Task: inverse folding
Protein backbone atom coordinates (compact mmCIF):
# COMPACT_ATOMS: atom_id res chain seq x y z
CA UNK A 1 0.00 0.00 0.00
CA UNK A 2 2.77 2.42 0.91
CA UNK A 3 4.38 2.04 -2.52
CA UNK A 4 1.12 3.03 -4.24
CA UNK A 5 1.09 6.41 -2.47
CA UNK A 6 4.26 7.81 -3.99
CA UNK A 7 2.72 9.79 -6.84
CA UNK A 8 0.64 12.94 -6.60
CA UNK A 9 -2.94 12.70 -7.81
CA UNK A 10 -5.03 15.41 -9.44
CA UNK A 11 -8.61 14.89 -8.34
CA UNK A 12 -10.36 17.40 -10.59
CA UNK A 13 -11.60 20.98 -10.61
CA UNK A 14 -13.55 22.97 -8.05
CA UNK A 15 -15.52 25.86 -9.56
CA UNK A 16 -16.64 28.55 -7.14
CA UNK A 17 -18.80 31.64 -7.55
CA UNK A 18 -17.69 34.35 -5.15
CA UNK A 19 -20.60 36.30 -3.72
CA UNK A 20 -19.23 38.88 -1.28
CA UNK A 21 -17.42 37.05 1.51
CA UNK A 22 -19.01 33.70 0.64
CA UNK A 23 -18.20 31.25 -2.15
CA UNK A 24 -20.90 29.06 -3.70
CA UNK A 25 -19.94 25.72 -5.25
CA UNK A 26 -20.89 25.49 -8.92
CA UNK A 27 -19.08 22.23 -9.63
CA UNK A 28 -17.19 19.82 -7.36
CA UNK A 29 -19.56 19.47 -4.41
CA UNK A 30 -19.65 15.66 -4.56
CA UNK A 31 -15.85 15.56 -4.68
CA UNK A 32 -15.46 17.87 -1.69
CA UNK A 33 -18.07 16.03 0.38
CA UNK A 34 -16.48 12.65 -0.37
CA UNK A 35 -12.97 13.73 0.61
CA UNK A 36 -14.29 15.50 3.72
CA UNK A 37 -16.18 12.38 4.82
CA UNK A 38 -13.12 10.23 4.14
CA UNK A 39 -10.84 12.49 6.20
CA UNK A 40 -13.40 12.48 9.02
CA UNK A 41 -13.52 8.67 8.90
CA UNK A 42 -9.71 8.64 9.07
CA UNK A 43 -9.80 10.66 12.28
CA UNK A 44 -9.79 14.36 11.32
CA UNK A 45 -10.95 16.31 14.38
CA UNK A 46 -12.81 19.22 12.75
CA UNK A 47 -13.81 19.82 9.14
CA UNK A 48 -15.65 23.13 8.84
CA UNK A 49 -17.05 22.25 5.43
CA UNK A 50 -19.18 19.48 6.95
CA UNK A 51 -20.77 22.02 9.28
CA UNK A 52 -22.20 24.03 6.38
CA UNK A 53 -25.91 23.59 5.51
CA UNK A 54 -26.87 21.66 2.38
CA UNK A 55 -30.10 21.64 0.41
CA UNK A 56 -32.66 19.93 2.65
CA UNK A 57 -33.82 17.19 0.31
CA UNK A 58 -34.20 13.40 0.76
CA UNK A 59 -31.20 12.76 -1.48
CA UNK A 60 -28.80 14.58 0.87
CA UNK A 61 -30.46 13.36 4.07
CA UNK A 62 -30.21 9.73 2.99
CA UNK A 63 -26.97 9.50 0.99
CA UNK A 64 -24.48 11.57 2.98
CA UNK A 65 -24.85 9.57 6.24
CA UNK A 66 -24.90 6.32 4.26
CA UNK A 67 -21.72 7.26 2.42
CA UNK A 68 -19.99 8.19 5.66
CA UNK A 69 -20.87 4.85 7.24
CA UNK A 70 -19.56 3.06 4.17
CA UNK A 71 -16.26 4.96 4.26
CA UNK A 72 -15.98 4.36 7.99
CA UNK A 73 -16.36 0.61 7.48
CA UNK A 74 -13.70 0.63 4.76
CA UNK A 75 -11.31 2.60 6.94
CA UNK A 76 -11.88 0.22 9.85
CA UNK A 77 -10.77 -2.61 7.58
CA UNK A 78 -7.30 -1.00 7.39
CA UNK A 79 -5.66 -2.85 10.26
CA UNK A 80 -2.26 -1.16 10.25
CA UNK A 81 -2.38 2.31 11.91
CA UNK A 82 0.59 3.39 9.79
CA UNK A 83 -1.40 2.76 6.62
CA UNK A 84 -4.24 4.89 7.95
CA UNK A 85 -1.89 7.77 8.81
CA UNK A 86 -0.17 7.57 5.43
CA UNK A 87 -3.52 7.62 3.62
CA UNK A 88 -4.61 10.62 5.71
CA UNK A 89 -1.34 12.48 5.01
CA UNK A 90 -1.46 11.63 1.32
CA UNK A 91 -4.98 13.03 0.90
CA UNK A 92 -4.03 16.21 2.75
CA UNK A 93 -0.68 16.81 1.04
CA UNK A 94 -0.65 15.03 -2.31
CA UNK A 95 -4.18 15.19 -3.74
CA UNK A 96 -4.39 18.28 -5.95
CA UNK A 97 -7.66 20.08 -6.63
CA UNK A 98 -7.66 22.90 -9.18
CA UNK A 99 -9.76 25.76 -7.82
CA UNK A 100 -11.41 28.27 -10.16
CA UNK A 101 -13.04 31.31 -8.53
CA UNK A 102 -15.07 33.89 -10.43
CA UNK A 103 -17.38 36.71 -9.37
CA UNK A 104 -19.46 36.27 -12.54
CA UNK A 105 -22.05 33.52 -12.00
CA UNK A 106 -22.69 33.02 -15.70
CA UNK A 107 -18.98 32.73 -16.37
CA UNK A 108 -18.81 30.07 -13.64
CA UNK A 109 -21.53 27.97 -15.26
CA UNK A 110 -20.01 28.48 -18.70
CA UNK A 111 -16.71 27.14 -17.36
CA UNK A 112 -18.60 24.25 -15.76
CA UNK A 113 -20.21 23.44 -19.10
CA UNK A 114 -16.93 23.49 -21.04
CA UNK A 115 -15.07 21.43 -18.40
CA UNK A 116 -17.68 18.70 -18.31
CA UNK A 117 -18.00 18.59 -22.09
CA UNK A 118 -14.38 17.30 -22.10
CA UNK A 119 -14.78 15.06 -19.08
CA UNK A 120 -17.34 12.53 -17.97
CA UNK A 121 -20.65 12.42 -19.76
CA UNK A 122 -23.34 14.64 -18.24
CA UNK A 123 -27.03 13.95 -18.21
CA UNK A 124 -28.84 15.96 -20.91
CA UNK A 125 -30.79 17.89 -18.25
CA UNK A 126 -27.46 19.03 -16.72
CA UNK A 127 -26.39 20.48 -20.08
CA UNK A 128 -29.77 22.18 -20.43
CA UNK A 129 -29.36 23.69 -16.97
CA UNK A 130 -26.04 25.28 -17.98
CA UNK A 131 -27.48 26.53 -21.27
CA UNK A 132 -30.55 28.18 -19.76
CA UNK A 133 -28.56 29.75 -16.93
CA UNK A 134 -26.57 31.63 -19.57
CA UNK A 135 -29.87 32.94 -20.93
CA UNK A 136 -30.72 34.46 -17.52
CA UNK A 137 -28.34 37.40 -17.64
CA UNK A 138 -31.25 39.77 -17.02
CA UNK A 139 -31.70 38.43 -13.46
CA UNK A 140 -29.69 39.48 -10.43
CA UNK A 141 -27.53 36.99 -8.52
CA UNK A 142 -30.10 36.47 -5.73
CA UNK A 143 -32.89 35.54 -8.14
CA UNK A 144 -30.52 33.32 -10.13
CA UNK A 145 -29.41 31.45 -7.02
CA UNK A 146 -33.06 30.97 -6.05
CA UNK A 147 -33.75 29.41 -9.45
CA UNK A 148 -30.69 27.14 -9.18
CA UNK A 149 -31.67 26.03 -5.66
CA UNK A 150 -35.21 25.21 -6.82
CA UNK A 151 -33.76 23.03 -9.58
CA UNK A 152 -31.26 21.27 -7.31
CA UNK A 153 -33.90 20.58 -4.66
CA UNK A 154 -35.69 18.32 -7.15
CA UNK A 155 -34.71 14.66 -7.18
CA UNK A 156 -32.12 14.65 -9.99
CA UNK A 157 -32.75 11.03 -11.02
CA UNK A 158 -36.47 11.73 -11.36
CA UNK A 159 -35.74 15.00 -13.17
CA UNK A 160 -33.53 13.16 -15.65
CA UNK A 161 -36.32 10.61 -16.22
CA UNK A 162 -38.85 13.41 -16.73
CA UNK A 163 -36.87 14.78 -19.67
CA UNK A 164 -35.61 11.50 -21.14
CA UNK A 165 -38.62 9.24 -20.66
CA UNK A 166 -41.52 11.66 -20.89
CA UNK A 167 -40.99 15.19 -22.23
CA UNK A 168 -38.60 14.26 -25.05
CA UNK A 169 -40.64 11.27 -26.18
CA UNK A 170 -43.87 13.25 -26.02
CA UNK A 171 -42.39 15.98 -28.22
CA UNK A 172 -41.52 13.37 -30.83
CA UNK A 173 -44.68 11.27 -30.55
CA UNK A 174 -47.05 14.25 -30.89
CA UNK A 175 -45.29 15.04 -34.19
CA UNK A 176 -45.66 11.48 -35.42
CA UNK A 177 -41.99 10.61 -34.93
CA UNK A 178 -40.41 7.69 -33.12
CA UNK A 179 -38.42 8.63 -30.02
CA UNK A 180 -35.46 6.67 -28.70
CA UNK A 181 -33.02 8.47 -26.43
CA UNK A 182 -32.43 12.06 -25.31
CA UNK A 183 -28.74 12.87 -25.72
CA UNK A 184 -26.46 15.90 -26.05
CA UNK A 185 -27.10 15.67 -29.81
CA UNK A 186 -30.84 16.35 -29.67
CA UNK A 187 -31.27 18.50 -26.57
CA UNK A 188 -31.80 21.47 -28.91
CA UNK A 189 -35.48 20.54 -28.69
CA UNK A 190 -35.41 21.98 -25.16
CA UNK A 191 -33.27 25.05 -25.81
CA UNK A 192 -36.26 27.01 -26.94
CA UNK A 193 -36.74 30.57 -28.09
CA UNK A 194 -34.28 33.24 -26.94
CA UNK A 195 -34.85 36.94 -26.48
CA UNK A 196 -32.98 37.55 -29.77
CA UNK A 197 -35.40 35.46 -31.83
CA UNK A 198 -37.80 37.77 -33.66
CA UNK A 199 -39.48 35.56 -36.24
CA UNK A 200 -43.30 35.68 -36.15
CA UNK A 201 -43.62 32.24 -34.50
CA UNK A 202 -41.09 33.24 -31.81
CA UNK A 203 -42.84 36.55 -31.14
CA UNK A 204 -46.18 34.73 -30.84
CA UNK A 205 -44.81 32.19 -28.31
CA UNK A 206 -43.06 34.86 -26.25
CA UNK A 207 -46.16 37.02 -26.34
CA UNK A 208 -48.40 34.16 -25.19
CA UNK A 209 -46.05 33.37 -22.31
CA UNK A 210 -45.72 37.03 -21.30
CA UNK A 211 -49.52 37.48 -21.33
CA UNK A 212 -50.15 34.38 -19.19
CA UNK A 213 -47.42 35.39 -16.77
CA UNK A 214 -48.71 38.95 -16.41
CA UNK A 215 -52.31 37.80 -15.85
CA UNK A 216 -51.29 35.24 -13.22
CA UNK A 217 -49.22 37.79 -11.31
CA UNK A 218 -51.96 40.40 -11.36
CA UNK A 219 -55.14 40.63 -9.25
CA UNK A 220 -57.29 39.66 -12.25
CA UNK A 221 -57.74 35.93 -11.40
CA UNK A 222 -58.78 36.80 -7.84
CA UNK A 223 -61.09 39.67 -8.76
CA UNK A 224 -62.77 38.06 -11.76
CA UNK A 225 -62.76 34.49 -10.46
CA UNK A 226 -61.07 33.17 -13.59
CA UNK A 227 -58.53 30.36 -13.41
CA UNK A 228 -54.81 30.90 -13.69
CA UNK A 229 -53.54 30.67 -17.25
CA UNK A 230 -51.02 27.91 -17.97
CA UNK A 231 -47.94 29.49 -19.53
CA UNK A 232 -46.70 26.15 -20.96
CA UNK A 233 -47.82 23.48 -23.40
CA UNK A 234 -45.96 20.23 -23.96
CA UNK A 235 -45.90 20.45 -27.75
CA UNK A 236 -45.03 24.14 -28.09
CA UNK A 237 -41.59 25.79 -28.00
CA UNK A 238 -40.01 26.69 -24.65
CA UNK A 239 -38.96 30.23 -23.84
CA UNK A 240 -35.27 30.11 -22.88
CA UNK A 241 -33.97 31.26 -19.50
CA UNK A 242 -35.89 31.28 -16.20
CA UNK A 243 -39.03 30.08 -17.95
CA UNK A 244 -37.29 26.78 -18.73
CA UNK A 245 -36.78 26.09 -15.01
CA UNK A 246 -40.42 26.98 -14.29
CA UNK A 247 -41.44 24.64 -17.13
CA UNK A 248 -39.38 21.75 -15.70
CA UNK A 249 -40.78 22.19 -12.20
CA UNK A 250 -44.35 22.50 -13.54
CA UNK A 251 -44.28 19.13 -15.33
CA UNK A 252 -42.16 17.49 -12.62
CA UNK A 253 -44.92 18.19 -10.09
CA UNK A 254 -47.75 17.06 -12.39
CA UNK A 255 -46.00 13.77 -13.20
CA UNK A 256 -45.33 13.18 -9.51
CA UNK A 257 -49.03 13.81 -8.81
CA UNK A 258 -50.03 11.29 -11.49
CA UNK A 259 -47.72 8.60 -10.12
CA UNK A 260 -48.56 9.18 -6.45
CA UNK A 261 -52.31 8.36 -6.23
CA UNK A 262 -52.42 9.28 -2.52
CA UNK A 263 -56.04 10.14 -1.72
CA UNK A 264 -54.96 13.13 0.41
CA UNK A 265 -52.24 14.63 -1.81
CA UNK A 266 -52.17 16.27 -5.21
CA UNK A 267 -54.93 17.58 -7.44
CA UNK A 268 -55.33 15.09 -10.28
CA UNK A 269 -55.00 11.36 -9.52
CA UNK A 270 -56.33 10.58 -6.05
CA UNK A 271 -57.31 7.11 -4.86
CA UNK A 272 -58.08 5.88 -8.38
CA UNK A 273 -58.80 2.11 -8.45
CA UNK A 274 -57.02 1.51 -11.75
CA UNK A 275 -53.87 3.33 -10.66
CA UNK A 276 -54.04 1.71 -7.21
CA UNK A 277 -54.02 -1.74 -8.79
CA UNK A 278 -51.25 -0.90 -11.24
CA UNK A 279 -49.10 0.21 -8.31
CA UNK A 280 -49.08 -3.35 -6.96
CA UNK A 281 -45.72 -5.08 -7.28
CA UNK A 282 -47.02 -7.71 -9.71
CA UNK A 283 -47.85 -4.99 -12.27
CA UNK A 284 -44.62 -3.01 -11.80
CA UNK A 285 -42.03 -5.75 -12.38
CA UNK A 286 -40.60 -6.47 -15.82
CA UNK A 287 -39.74 -4.39 -18.87
CA UNK A 288 -43.14 -4.85 -20.51
CA UNK A 289 -45.05 -3.63 -17.46
CA UNK A 290 -42.76 -0.61 -17.09
CA UNK A 291 -43.19 0.34 -20.75
CA UNK A 292 -46.99 0.09 -20.72
CA UNK A 293 -47.17 2.02 -17.45
CA UNK A 294 -45.00 4.73 -19.00
CA UNK A 295 -47.41 4.93 -21.95
CA UNK A 296 -50.34 5.30 -19.56
CA UNK A 297 -48.65 7.99 -17.45
CA UNK A 298 -47.57 9.85 -20.59
CA UNK A 299 -51.07 9.91 -22.03
CA UNK A 300 -52.49 11.16 -18.70
CA UNK A 301 -49.81 13.86 -18.54
CA UNK A 302 -50.74 15.00 -22.04
CA UNK A 303 -54.47 15.06 -21.18
CA UNK A 304 -53.91 17.11 -18.02
CA UNK A 305 -51.72 19.51 -19.98
CA UNK A 306 -54.44 20.02 -22.59
CA UNK A 307 -57.67 19.91 -20.62
CA UNK A 308 -57.18 20.23 -16.85
CA UNK A 309 -56.83 23.55 -15.04
CA UNK A 310 -54.29 24.04 -12.28
CA UNK A 311 -56.98 23.42 -9.66
CA UNK A 312 -59.49 21.03 -11.26
CA UNK A 313 -63.17 21.11 -10.36
CA UNK A 314 -65.29 18.02 -9.67
CA UNK A 315 -66.41 18.01 -13.31
CA UNK A 316 -62.80 18.25 -14.49
CA UNK A 317 -61.86 15.25 -12.35
CA UNK A 318 -64.84 13.19 -13.55
CA UNK A 319 -63.74 13.76 -17.14
CA UNK A 320 -60.13 12.99 -16.23
CA UNK A 321 -61.04 9.69 -14.57
CA UNK A 322 -63.10 8.71 -17.59
CA UNK A 323 -60.04 9.42 -19.73
CA UNK A 324 -57.82 7.38 -17.37
CA UNK A 325 -60.04 4.36 -17.99
CA UNK A 326 -59.79 4.70 -21.77
CA UNK A 327 -56.05 5.44 -21.57
CA UNK A 328 -55.57 2.30 -19.48
CA UNK A 329 -57.41 0.19 -22.05
CA UNK A 330 -55.34 1.73 -24.84
CA UNK A 331 -51.95 1.30 -23.15
CA UNK A 332 -52.55 -2.16 -21.70
CA UNK A 333 -54.07 -3.51 -24.91
CA UNK A 334 -50.43 -3.54 -26.05
CA UNK A 335 -49.61 -5.72 -23.06
CA UNK A 336 -52.51 -8.01 -23.94
CA UNK A 337 -51.36 -8.42 -27.55
CA UNK A 338 -47.71 -9.25 -26.84
CA UNK A 339 -46.16 -11.64 -24.35
CA UNK A 340 -42.86 -9.74 -24.50
CA UNK A 341 -43.24 -5.97 -24.88
CA UNK A 342 -40.13 -4.03 -25.89
CA UNK A 343 -39.54 -0.53 -27.20
CA UNK A 344 -39.77 -1.56 -30.85
CA UNK A 345 -43.30 -2.93 -30.35
CA UNK A 346 -44.22 0.10 -28.23
CA UNK A 347 -42.99 2.57 -30.85
CA UNK A 348 -44.94 0.80 -33.61
CA UNK A 349 -48.00 0.74 -31.35
CA UNK A 350 -47.76 4.48 -30.71
CA UNK A 351 -47.22 5.25 -34.39
CA UNK A 352 -50.43 3.36 -35.20
CA UNK A 353 -48.70 0.58 -37.10
CA UNK A 354 -50.28 -2.13 -34.96
CA UNK A 355 -53.29 -0.76 -33.09
CA UNK A 356 -56.79 -2.10 -32.45
CA UNK A 357 -59.56 0.13 -33.71
CA UNK A 358 -61.89 1.84 -31.27
CA UNK A 359 -64.59 -0.84 -31.56
CA UNK A 360 -62.04 -3.51 -30.63
CA UNK A 361 -60.89 -1.51 -27.61
CA UNK A 362 -64.47 -0.95 -26.47
CA UNK A 363 -65.25 -4.65 -26.84
CA UNK A 364 -62.29 -5.67 -24.69
CA UNK A 365 -62.65 -2.85 -22.16
CA UNK A 366 -64.98 -4.60 -19.71
CA UNK A 367 -62.99 -7.86 -19.80
CA UNK A 368 -59.66 -6.10 -19.24
CA UNK A 369 -61.00 -4.09 -16.30
CA UNK A 370 -62.40 -7.23 -14.70
CA UNK A 371 -59.03 -8.99 -15.02
CA UNK A 372 -57.11 -6.02 -13.66
CA UNK A 373 -59.42 -5.34 -10.75
CA UNK A 374 -59.90 -8.96 -9.85
CA UNK A 375 -63.57 -9.07 -10.80
Result:
Amino acid sequence: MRESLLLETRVGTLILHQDGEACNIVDGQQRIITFSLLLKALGAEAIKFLELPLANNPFNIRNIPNNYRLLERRVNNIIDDRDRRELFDYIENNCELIVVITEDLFEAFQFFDSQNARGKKLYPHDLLKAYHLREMNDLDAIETEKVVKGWEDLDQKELSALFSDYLYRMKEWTKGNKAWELTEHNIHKFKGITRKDNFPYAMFCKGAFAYADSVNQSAMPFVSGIRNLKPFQLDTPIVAGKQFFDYAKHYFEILKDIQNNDKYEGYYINDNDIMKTLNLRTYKNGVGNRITRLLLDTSILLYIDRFCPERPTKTDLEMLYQFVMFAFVWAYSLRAQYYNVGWLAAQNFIMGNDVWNFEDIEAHQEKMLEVLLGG
